[in-house]
Amino acid sequence: MKLLLIGHTERYPVEQLQMQLFPDEPSEFVTHRFTGDGTVSSLSRGKKYLTATAKVTKGGKTGFASRRIPLENADVRMTRRILQQSYYLAATKVLGTVPPWGALSGVRPTKLSTKCMLEGGSEKDAANLLEKTYFVTPERSRLCVDASKHTLEAAKLLEPGDLSVYIGIPFCPTRCSYCSFVSESIERFGAFLPPYLEALHREIAYTGKLLADSGYHIRSLYMGGGTPTTLSSPQMKELLRAIKDSFDLSRCLEFTVEGGRPDTLDEEKLRVIHDGGATRISINPQTMADDVLAAVGRKHTAAQTVEAFRQARAVGFEDINMDLIAGLPEDTPEKFADSLSQVLALNPSNVTVHTLALKKGANLFQNRTVLPTNEDVSQMLSGAETSLRAHSFVPYYLYRQKYMSGSFENTGWCKPGFTGWYNIYMMEELHTILSLGGGGMNKINLPAGQLERFHNPKSPQDYIARIDTILQQKDEIFEILHRLVQQPPAPIEEECE
Fold first, then answer.
1. In what order do the strands lie in the sheet with 49-58?
2. Alpha-carbon gap, residue 328 to 15, rounded angstroms
3. How confident is the model over 348-371, as a mean pLDDT?
4. Are 413 and 396 in contact (CB under 8 A)?
5. What's CA 293's distance to the chain center, in Å?
6. pLDDT-derived band of residue 366, with 50, 70 and 90 as boundaries?
7. How does DSSP classify residue 449?
8. Residue 444 CB contacts under 8 Å (≥ 6 apart), including other chains
């Protein structure tokens, strides 16, 4: 869709919302008046008010809307807000539907409700902010506020010098058709795994020495991917020993290993992980319907998921997360409800309900695979919420992605006493995250709610080739951390809309 800005250059808030509401219509910026489909976003300054006006045309329908604020309130944040609001109100007149997250287009809607409550607002105040200012539906507002309560709890537990560590294993047995992550299949790239692990061991040892002299301590540790359990039992044992030898985990609240694919797990490997210090493991079926598993290229069955879960319990894991994805090909609301019922029968401590995000790098996107409708996905998610709350689960974190089916969300649910701390620290950017391995992003929390990011190379090949540079980058990171250790930063207050 064409997009014309008049009287302002605030491209981002309008473009992001247009991408969300019209995902099949790439934005095309123009500098002159046009006919046909598109958006005109205008900003005009009067004697008393700043007024944002939007005109949205699509398929022969046109919607108009405007919002204004007094000039004395017209800072950057409020200006962007009325631009968003006017566009949203005009666009929804054309669409004839109300998006679940209203005018919000950001990844972390919980930052709005969390900030409201940190400043003394009640849960009702936070809900009103979401619903009346950003047009969020009451159902999503409740999710958001409930998750924010866990963010507040997590923030209270933090102490000066706390940080978390992420260790990435960018390998999988095979590539799922919905996946766009940078990960390599063992079938094609297995030869890179031994040199990758050698480089990772170097980074772990080097980072451990820097940490020991820094005054910082690890609050949570997360091994993700990819699929970390693609490693053999001996490889996993050696990696866990390196972590234990290099890092002081005496103040670590949680050590998670992504089991991910049940076909990478057996009792021996699970015992290695448990005895190696992990306190939490994820066993992620994504669905318990075998035909859906086959449709997305997963080389395991629902029965293997059940067996992997049983084995994890047998070796001593009390904290087990399981993931499901709403919106997979061949799935239906009835099948999804049955998948969740089977998962709940296993009695996990966490259940994460993802919404399918159709990224351009995924085979599902490239092959134009037929997927469940947005209405079906909505039914899957609403049914999941009802069932999870009935089984004493509460939402503890959530986030959104671009190109999600129906513009919904991913929500982590936990039973009381089993909050997934790393997920909150990372998504809500409450403190520094050190990332080791391919594809990792180091996020350094600075004063005044700012972030400084350092990227590790994405591909295993590049990571191996550039390990010396990566270690030098860790020196730079710790130079910054040394200056900050006595200045614990406030939670990030970036633009959330």
1. 28-30, 2-6, 38-45, 49-58, 61-70
2. 28
3. 78
4. yes
5. 22
6. low
7. G
8. 432, 451, 452, 453, 454, 477, 480, 481, 484
Give pLDDT tens digits for 37-92: 999 999 999 999 999 999 999 999 999 999 999 999 999 999 999 999 999 999 99
Name the residue among 107, 106, 110, 92 with its Cα closest to residue 21.
Answer: 92
Contact 436, 203 (CB under 8 A): yes
pTM: 0.91
Identify the CATH class of 2-95: alpha beta
**In sequence order, which residues have a C-beta less than 8 Å from that of residue 282 and are 6 or more positions away?**
256, 257, 258, 259, 260, 320, 321, 322, 323
Q: Is residue 139's pLDDT more than 70?
A: yes
Asked whether 486 and 160 are in contact (CB, 8 A), the reply is yes
Within its chain, how far is the Cα of 98 from the centroid? 23
Mean pLDDT of 393-405: 91
What is the Cα–Cα distance from 213 to 210, expressed in whole angstroms?
Answer: 6
Helix (H) or strand (E) holding 140: helix 138-157
Assign domain 158-484 to its CATH architecture. Answer: Alpha-Beta Horseshoe (3.80)
- Mapping DSSP to helix (H, G, I), strand (E, B) and coil, where does residue 17 land? helix
Confidence class for position 440, pLDDT limits 50, 70, 90: confident
Question: SS3 letters for 156-199?
Answer: HHCCCCEEEEEEEECEECCCCCCCCCCCEEHHHHHHHHHHHHHH
Q: Round the CA-based radius of gyration of the chain to a whole number and report it.
A: 23
> For strand 254-260 and strand 217-225, is the pairing parallel, antiparallel, or unpaired?
parallel
Domain residue spans in the chain?
2-95, 110-154, 158-484
User: Whose CA is closest to 199, among 465, 493, 483?
Assistant: 465
Evaluate the omega torsion of the peptide bond into residue 63 and state whether it is cis, within 30 degrees of 0.
Answer: no
Looking up tokens 């980074």, which residue turns up? 203
